[in-house]
Write a structure and sequence with these properties.
Elements (H helix, E strand, L loop, with lengths): L4 E5 L2 E4 L2 E4 L1 E5 L2 E6 L10 E4 L4 E4 L1 E6 L12 H10 L2 E6 L10 H14 L3 E4 L15 H6 L4 E3 L8 H14 L2 E4 L12 E2 L2 H6 L3 E2 L1 H18 L3 E3 L5 H12 L4 E5 L27 H13 L4 E2 L8 H4 L16 H8 L4 H16 L17 E10 L20 E10 L2 E5 L2 E2 L2
Parallel strand pairs: 1-6, 2-7, 8-9, 9-10, 11-12, 12-15, 13-14, 15-16, 16-17
Antiparallel strand pairs: 1-4, 2-3, 4-5, 7-18, 18-19, 19-20, 20-21
Helix pairs in contact: 4-6, 6-7, 7-8
């Protein structure tokens, strides 16, 4: 039996074509046959049970921090890609705030090659918009584009200089690249710990106003209007941000946006216990914001769910709340959280977790594809009705800074198929 021949049996296939009960045969990385009750040959192929499961295109994450190079105490490409595979992801876009920054060909190629060597999913490095993410000088876009970089972002710090962002958009537009903005006016968030609102005032903590996000959302929508170049807005968290993007789309502007699982499931009230696991950037907002972001995902104002998977070692998150770094894990829990809080069907969930992100990331040639003969075999098999809780000791990530301990989640990945290979079988990593 060879590992490049698989048969998924008993599942319900879900993609843009709808839902239908089909078995799926895979060989040499490609779907070679689909049909009802296909004959299995265990001597020639590995048979994976998908009875009662949903079979669809593997998830794509637009926003993953793999930390390597430079911060491998928190995560590595090997452990981060294992977490991705367990979460149903067949591709992730690796954020550039590594050490050194992904602002040159050498670092980008290191991340890409390391992903090919040890990764259990497709690891696609992004590039930073500015050198060192310092917001002063643009990176060599054309050089990075020549080695396959499509998405550029200074994630973790927005580009503060509007003139520089305009030039970046003009340059990116000429090259067919996508700029993704971390929407934060830094002058309004110095020393901020959590969302500026009633909870923040009660706790006596420095507040992070929603306006700090919304001003930059507005600015970059107008820069998009001026230049005609597409812009992608990262991890939106406020009701007004969603309204601005919805209006921009109504005007026909090439604006896309993402939201995280934590911004549709948690509120600033979680910080009342001063637990740094709930400290993120942008911060958790109010229930009104949470509900607005959910509506944005359901009505198309927001295009994708992206994890912002941000591992940190335990000692970092154990610091006082004002000193602890922002960020939480997301890859292994994204499906369970999204499925629990969004009242929608499986086709819409795959649009948000797979086909939409693949299209934005420029990966739609291999990911987020229909489950049809001749298509690349990048697939996820999901137990739709499983209720489960996070075991922090059982996570694939090197870190355990998840906020979802003790919270019931809905639906879980059973198998993940990457390039025709079963990298997760029965919820276990298969290297």
């Amino acid at each position: 039996m060879t590992l490049d021949r698989l048969l998924l049996t008993g599942g319900t296939v879900v993609d843009g074509g709808g839902e239908r009960r089909l078995d799926v045969r895979i060989a040499d990385g490609v779907i070679v046959e689909i049909g009802v009750a296909l004959d299995a040959d265990p001597a020639l192929e590995r048979v994976l049970d998908a009875q009662g499961c949903i079979v669809g295109p593997g998830f794509v994450d637009l926003h993953t921090h793999l930390r390597e190079p430079g911060m491998t105490e928190a995560e590595t490409i090997a452990t981060g890609s294992a977490a991705a595979a367990l979460g149903g992801y067949t591709a992730v876009v690796a954020m550039p705030n590594t050490d050194p920054t992904q602002d040159c060909v050498e670092v980008v190629e290191f991340v890409r090659n390391r992903g090919r060597e040890v990764g259990l999913c497709d690891v696609r490095p992004s590039g930073s918009i500015t050198i060192g993410r310092a917001g002063v000088q643009l990176t060599p876009f054309s050089e990075l584009a020549a080695v396959g970089v499509h998405l550029f972002t200074d994630d973790g710090s927005g580009v503060q200089d509007a003139g520089l962002m305009r030039r970046a958009l003009e340059y990116a537009g000429e090259l067919g690249l996508l700029l993704a903005q971390h929407c934060e006016v830094a002058a309004m968030t110095h020393g901020a710990v959590m969302h500026e609102g009633d909870c923040c005032s009660h706790l006596g903590l420095p507040g992070w106003p929603a306006l700090a996000e919304e001003l930059m959302v507005h600015r970059d929508i107008e820069l998009c209007r001026l230049t005609g170049s597409p812009v992608h807005l990262l991890h939106l968290s406020t009701a007004r941000s969603v309204e601005l993007v919805r209006a921009a789309k109504a005007d026909g502007l090439p604006v896309t946006a993402e939201a995280t699982p934590h911004h549709i499931s948690l509120t600033d009230e979680a910080l009342r216990a001063f637990d740094a696991r709930f400290k993120v950037n942008p911060p958790l907002r109010t229930m009104a914001d949470v509900e607005a972001v959910r509506r944005g995902l359901l009505d198309g104002a927001i295009d994708a769910v992206a994890t912002d998977h941000a591992p940190h070692p335990a000692h970092a998150k154990e610091r006082p709340l004002d000193e602890a770094p922002p960020g939480m894990l997301g890859l292994e829990t994204a499906l369970g959280v999204t499925r629990k809080v969004l009242d929608t069907n499986w086709q819409k969930l795959f649009e948000l977790l797979s086909t939409g992100p693949a299209r934005i990331a420029g990966l739609a040639d291999a990911h987020g594809r229909p489950v049809e003969v001749g298509e690349p075999a990048n697939l996820v098999v999901i137990d739709p009705d499983v209720d489960w809780e996070v075991d922090p000791g059982g996570l694939a990530s090197l870190s355990n800074n998840t906020p979802y301990i003790g919270m019931g989640l809905r639906s879980r990945v059973r198998h993940t198929i990457f390039h025709g290979r079963a990298v997760v079988i029965d919820r276990e990593v298969n290297r």
